[in-house]
Amino acid sequence: MNLTIKFIVAISAIIFLSYGFLLFQTSSLQDELVMGQARQQARILYKQIILTRQWVSDHQGLFLVKTEGVSENPYLHESVIRADDGTVFVKRNPAMVTRELSEYATRSGFCWFRITSLQPVNPANKPDELERDALLQFEQGVREIDAVTDTPDGRVHRYVAPLTVQESCLSCHAEHGYAVGDIRGALSISVPLSWADSVIRKNNITIFKYALFSVIAVALALTFLFNKLVGRRIARLSNAMDTYPEENYAVIDDKHLVNDEIGRLIGNFGDLCERLDKTQKDLDTSMQQAFYNEKMAALGQLTAGIAHEINNPLGGLLNCVKTLQEEPDNVEIRARYVPLLEKGLKRIEHIMRQLLNFGRNAPLTYSKVDIDEIIRECFELFEYRLKTISVNLDLNLKERYCIDVEALRQVIVNTCLNSLQAMPDGGSLSVTTQRSYTRIIITVKDSGTGIDPAIIDKIFDPFYTTKEVGEGTGLGLAVTYSLVKQMKGYIEVDSEPGQGAEFTISLPASQDCIIPTGQNEPVNTREQ
């Protein structure tokens, strides 16, 4: 998931949560207002009904002309009277007035109400569960009960309040044992809330639509602004980072945005790349110089012994020349000394060629060569140091492989010199070559003093040395490690104090030399 989507999802979630909280609070507030309004409406209706009942009771009931639909009340004494003209009048007491008013209210959908009692005269006034609980609580001093119940037609607000016996009530109910002030019944009022629930639902849907519209609008706006101000600019910067340093790292930014945070970041990235380029150039120069210095240091260690190797044939050559000068006409002496002169000069030429090859400073260039022969040449360079060393060359590479000759020479010389320095009093040195699947394995093993386990992880670090001042630079194994790594290989060491050390060099066994475009394959002088 990219940053744009995460940002939009986060903002959308915040908006949804905000609207969800608003929806919850608004719905709760509307519900509280509706309940309060229904409760107040029920209270007002209760008072109006009480006043109506009081008026009817104070006037000893109402008498209606008996017509169709106007029935007699079987629970009243003298419920019917006749006028002199024969008109029949039916009596209505407060209970019947209340019931008939409720029927009118029910038909209008406004509300409905009824009289109820624990000891009803009319069985139709028998209380339901809520009314029964309310009547019992009224006996404990509770003045009103209200609740919300669910019906198939929606929620209904139920309000139940007590009916207190008045003096005027005794005309009908004295025989039932009523006394003034008694609570012998209750008025149960039901107010439907479906209309309010419909309004609340409509408001909630409106809020949800606004929330959805807001999320879509904000998402579109954020997508546009984020892509323009952040996304595309970060993508450019990321692409420049991915291609650095192979390609140009310059990032083209909008001119009017260069001074914001991302603009400054892009500018700082360019400055950082410039500093890295400069640092890398300085580092490359330093590394090349360090490699060359180490090669010269190794060459210096070889020079003293090689000078002896050269001085010996030079002394013989000078004696031959002196003898030839003293007896220029002696054919026998000429025939014997001229071949000696030629042999000595070729010996000196061979030694100098080896020194020149080892001292050359050139980048890695692969050519197909005999690796075993290169190793033999390297041992000829420090042959003078092998007077007290038993050397065993177990070279088993039968084919030619692609390798950088100069790098291999330096690796072998540095590794072997390190082993020779570990055997100041003599010992044995063995070099083994073999092919293992797709790798060339070169093993250099000595019987020297070995390496302390505490420092074995540091021996390939630049400038780390255990030798005395003037005896080593601390770059030999570091340069060896770097050259082996450049040739896609690795070098490992295994050693125990007093048991010598074994260096294992693994290189790719490639016979397909990759020649850079525009260059010719280097010529191996030993093949000519």
How much of the polypeptide forms β-strand, as a percent range?
15-25%
Low-confidence stretches at least 5 residues in length (pLDDT < 50)? 515-528
Strand count, sense and closure of the main sheet?
5 strands, mixed
Order of helices and strands: HEEEHEHEEHEHHHEHEEHEEHEE
| Rg for CA atoms | 57 Å
Percent of residues in helical segments? 40-55%
CATH topology of the largest domain: Heat Shock Protein 90
Please list the strands of the largest sheet in the order they lie side by side: 9-11-12-14-13
Form type = rod-shaped
CATH class of the largest domain: Alpha Beta
Structural classification: alpha+beta
The first-to-last residue Cα distance is 63 Å
**Count of DSSP helices?**
10
Number of strands: 14
Please summarize what this structure is.
By secondary structure, the protein is an alpha+beta fold. It is 51% helix and 17% strand.
Summarize the SSE layout with pairings:
Layout: H1 3-58, E1 62-65, E2 80-82, E3 88-92, H2 94-108, E4 112-116, H3 129-138, E5 145-151, E6 154-164, H4 170-173, E7 183-192, H5 194-243, H6 261-326, H7 331-359, E8 366-369, H8 371-381, E9 389-395, E10 401-404, H9 405-421, E11 427-436, E12 439-446, H10 476-486, E13 490-495, E14 501-508
Parallel strand pairs: 9-11
Antiparallel strand pairs: 1-3, 2-3, 4-7, 5-6, 6-7, 8-10, 11-12, 12-14, 13-14
Helix pairs in contact: 1-2, 1-5, 5-6, 6-7, 8-9, 9-10
